[in-house]
Every structure is written in C-alpha cells, then in structure tokens.
Write a structure and sequence with these properties.
27% of the residues lie in helices and 26% in strands. The protein has 152 residues and is of the alpha+beta class.
C-alpha cells in the first residue's frame, strides 16, 4: 500500500474546479501537507478558497501522521487556515476483517492529534469525519469539494 493509495490523483481528477499544487518540502520544511489547493469562487464576484490536504492510506483504522505533520497542521489551523486530512481506508474481505471496504474519510486538520492517537475510531474523529464508501466511482466528489471550502 502506498502512503496515500492513489488519493492525490483521484482528488485532481475528480475536483476540476480546484487548482492543485503538489508539495514536496522534505529537505526544507517538514510536516507540510501533500497538496495545496485553490478552489474557484462559488459566484463570479465571490472569493476563491485556498487550503491544504494531507493524504493517508490505511487498511484498518490507524492514521499514520508524523509528529512534524501534526505540528504543522495544528499551527496552521490555529492561524485560521484550511487544512484537511483525507484517509483512504481500503481492505480486502476476510474472516477476521469482514466485508471489503474502499472508503474516503475526510476530516478537519484540527483533529490531527486525535487521529494519530486514536485513529479513525477516535470518538472526535469518527463524529467529525465525512465518510464515503464504495470506492472512488461512488464517492460524492461534489460533497468532497464543498467540504474543502469550509474551515473545519
């Protein structure tokens, strides 16, 4: 399983009203999320929307956020920035796992610490996350885009 299990290209492909910039800062500033976006205004004279998305993948409920990612995300959220964590939970069926799943979990970056400690089962994360199942073709990309325009 890759770090994001294909989320980056899926977001780019399915959210055409967003301008995406891949962020690779490992040698300069650690912890910056994977992608920066700017979304078109909802009305011709309205403001655009800018934010960040950190992509993760899991076959269970663990969200593998590094301490420097949590620090960057929480600091940006404190300053009023839009930061989202998108987790693709994808697992094959099995006797101990149950039915196969391919879900997108999207939640506000202000819950980064909770996600690291309690994963997707953390009560705050589970309550706040929007979850779409059935794989990318069935995820409600319009709702994903609307959520990315919010502050959290």
């Amino acid at each position: 399983m890759t770090v994001d299990n294909g989320l980056r290209p899926l977001f780019r492909q399915n959210l055409p009203d967003f301008d995406w910039c891949t962020i690779e800062t490992g040698m300069t500033t650690q912890g910056v999320p994977d992608s920066n976006y700017c979304a078109r205004p909802l009305t011709p004279s309205g403001p655009g929307f800018e934010g960040f998305v950190e992509y993760k993948a899991t076959n269970g409920y663990v969200v593998d956020l590094r301490p420097e990612q949590i620090g960057w995300i929480c600091r940006r959220v404190r300053w009023g920035g839009r930061v989202w964590i998108a987790v693709r939970r994808q697992a094959t069926a099995g006797p101990r796992r149950g039915a196969a799943v391919d879900e997108l979990w999207l939640f506000w970056g202000g819950l980064a610490k909770e996600a690291r400690l309690g994963g997707l089962r953390d009560p705050a994360v589970a309550r706040a996350a929007k979850v779409w199942g059935g794989g990318p073709a069935r995820w409600d990309w319009r709702a994903v885009g609307a959520r990315l325009r919010l502050r959290g």
